Amino acid sequence: MNILIVKLSAIGDVVQTLPALEAIKIIYPSSRITWIVEEAAAGILEGHQSIDTILISRRKTWLRMLKNPFTFSQGIAHITRFFRILRSTRYDIAIDFQGLFKSGILIGFARAERKIGFNGTREGSALFLNERLPAYDIEKHALQRYLDIARYLGSPKPSFLCTLPIQREQAVIRRRIATINPDNRPLVILNPMARWKTKLWPAEHFAQLADRLVLEKRALVIFTGSNEDKQEINHIRSLMTQDSHDWAGETTLKELAALASCSDLFITTDTGPMHLAAAAGATVVALFGPTAPWRTGPYGERHIVIRMGIKCSPCFQRSCDAMQCMKAITPEEVMKRIPLP
After folding, report:
1. What is the distance between the alpha carbons of residues 102 and 128, in angstroms, rounded to a whole number?
2. % the chain with pLDDT above 70
3. Taking residues 232-258, what's their average pLDDT?
4. Maximum separation of any 2 CA atoms in the chain, in Å
């Protein structure tokens, strides 16, 4: 049996689909599974024991190529090759976990007997399906929505846990940590950035929290993020009085997951690495403002979500002049909630 999974982005959404993948593999243990994913999230899937083929959609790169007259023909060639590979396999089941037009198109082009997804999705993606689950409850956690498809396929009690293929990365990260933490101090990861401005916690708050973690908990603090985050992380660290480490842009997705798995605490805004850390087994402290943790929070009982319950939250807005929902979370409140002795 050949199964096609379409879950393109983002990092957090891809990670939250892994439990459904593993539940489906249990239902069809001899199946061959292909996963179509976009470039940014592809790294976390590499080497997963339940995935036989990763087909990368380089949609953003292709669009840039099509806009440039000098690379237009090359872009067409890349797109044609991608769809030729997609069409080269006949699938017994194709599943649209994304529910957007960009995923619906891929489901439509795929040669599959059963094309499964949710009804009532955005951008008309359900039109490409021939098996439609009832429209999902938007207030239901995303991870459980994805597991609903595994249940539909016959999984009686799918687990919300998943396996990340990070054993090699864990060995590398442990060696690296040992060089900066000879005293085996509690390791706390701070992941301060997010794609939405409204999800950001003030830099002064992160600096104060980091200082208190060092002074009061003897913590070794490591900041994580992308290369693009380095300027803001440098700003946060410039406000600190204690030492910390900046690993922004210095880890792959798998290495970030490995780092989280080695940590005593992973403190983060609502962003993809939050879900990656939760899946890796870290204890996550998540700071929430404009979004709803019951929909997209770190999944599992051990995690701690901090939000102030301001009347306008969650608003799901990407811009806000006040941003009071995040500013109202104080370093003192976070320190009271963290599970470190």
Report:
1. 11
2. 100
3. 98
4. 62
Alpha helical stretches, state H, 32-166: 39-42, 59-67, 72-87, 101-109, 142-152
CB neighbourhood size of 207 (10 A):
22
Amino acid letter, 8: L
2-152 and 167-337 have identical folds: yes
**Angle of CA points 311, 316, 318, to nearest 5°:** 115
Domain boundaries, the chain: 2-152, 167-337
Write the class of the CATH domain 167-337.
alpha beta
Phi, psi of 111 (to 5 degrees): -90, 100
Cross-strand partners of 188? 221, 265
DSSP state of 122: G
Q: What is the reported pTM?
A: 0.94
Helix locations, 96-241, DSSP H: 101-109, 142-152, 167-180, 203-217, 230-238
- Phi, psi (rounded to 5 degrees) for 224: -125, 160
Residue 321 is inside which H or E element, if any?
none
Pair 52, 21: CB distance under 8 Å: no
Q: Measured in Å, how far apart are the chain's first and last C-alpha atoms?
A: 51
CATH superfamily placement of domain 2-152: Glycogen Phosphorylase B; (3.40.50.2000)
